[in-house]
Amino acid sequence: FQLRGMVSSEGDGSDLRSSSDPFLKAAVASTNGSSQMNGSVRGLSDRAMMVKNSLRDFNEEDRLAVMEDLLRDCNIESLEKLSTFISLIRVSRSEITFNCLGDPFIVLPHPIILKVLSFLDPVSLCLSMRVSRLWLRVATDSSLWKGLCNQSREYRMCSPAAEKAQIAKFSQDGSVRWKEAFGERFRLWNNWHSGRCTVRTLYGHKEGVVCVQLDGDRVVSGSTDTTIRCWDLQEEDAGRGLLGHTLNGHSETVRCLHLVKNRLASGSNDFTIKIWNMERSDEWSSIGCRRTMIGHTNYVRCLEMGDQLMISGSYDSSLKLWSLETGECVTTLVGHLDAVLCEQYREEERVVVSGSSDKCIKTWDTRTNMNIRSIHNAHDSAVTCIRMDDHRILSGSLDRMIKMWDIRTGKLLKTIDWRRAEGHTGVVRCLQADSWRIVSSADDRTVKVWNLESGERLCTLRDHTDGVTCVQFNDERIVSGSFDKTVKVWDFSLC
């Protein structure tokens, strides 16, 4: 509101009546209307009009003395009516014609004020608390902050489940502290968009790190030194050793990992897949290899577990579907003409999407074991990483580009390159995505964060001294591995 014009509490409001502001016109009409009503409706007698006119000629002291005597002669009912009338005049004249020049909210109903404030962005809403006590009281209404938390496109977390868990953290006795919940969410959102984070470096591998997994406070990494290392970020915060365990079992480079709760799957250049039990407590540990799967005839390059089945891709140009219960190969999907470098498995829909050195992206139905769609020459070189959601397929390549494809038609939706979109200038090694962002890594030693819908670059993270081979992330952290032999934790929750 910007209200112009001024009238004193004793003025006639002529300046305001000529104003173009409809709110002020309504205010003046309300004030003058009440005066006209009290003159005409009562139908004052000639004697009463004479007394009224005489009062106008009195000075302020005499007028006040006469009114005090008149009030003493009034009964209780008349005094109550006069009290209501005085309140109305006070609001209509003082608050509307004078004070509303700074604060129109004084006379607006509470629901209307909430509706007006609901159009403000979070920063403006916080600034509005400094206007007055009234604004502070209204701007802290939980419904405003609940509305911001429930916005469909802004200030989101990685998934609906994560949002539900975050709200539960600020719930007590059936009520939610919506302002605090949104405050945490906004701080994370702002940090992600500005690249504001703390960086911790995890040392331990003797050679390059080629795969990582992140599960809460637990990080697992695989390397060309043939080992798998487990890191507990919570242990570091508690002052204990960060490196929890080192898993030995593969005889060649550990190329891929997938961690789900306490089950870890690893694939290696020794052609094998191993399943590890990662369960542990303060008193005991049962971490160890529980099963080795043999079937591929070349390097195992990628894998992903579901609840009952696991899919793996290999340099032998095939994908294999495995039973996690028996360890047996259920079926083999053949169709790629070169090494399968990446894949994603959605067990609920029984769909697999894969990318290969043959520049092709294929979609498979695991119920029929058939290739249902192929995007030939999707990139100018090998497809190195791939992700999909309900609407699109995301792919990265040796050609340094990230592309988005319509999952139903295979039509190219968007290309993120280094020229037009400030993309990567080296081979795109890995990409991950959630409900609103993409995180990618490349041989240009950077990790980049993108808006999923628009493809806009949000921030670029630089701290590795060699190509970044792999990334994983959640709402608070990114974990990345590199040829520089380190794992880095980029924490957006501590700033």
Polypeptide structure, described:
β21 (about 390-395) and β22 (about 400-405) form a beta hairpin. The chain has about 500 residues and is α+β, with helices and mostly antiparallel strands. It has twelve helices and 30 strands. A four-stranded antiparallel β-sheet has the order 3-30-29-28, with no helix packed on it. The chain has a four-stranded antiparallel β-sheet with strand order 4-5-6-7. A four-stranded antiparallel β-sheet has the order 8-9-10-11, with no helix packed on it. Residues about 1-40 and about 95-100 have low confidence and may be disordered. α2 runs antiparallel to α5 (about 75-100) and α9 (about 140-150) crosses α11. The chain is about 25% helix and about 35% strand. Keywords: Repeat, WD repeat.
- Provide the helix percentage: 25-40%
Identify the strand order in the major beta sheet: 3-30-29-28
* Average residue pLDDT: 86
Biggest sheet descriptor: 4 strands, antiparallel
DSSP, total strands? 30
- How far apart the termini lie comes to 35 Å
Count of helical regions: 12
Residue share in β-strands: 25-35%
* Structural class estimated from helices and strands: alpha+beta
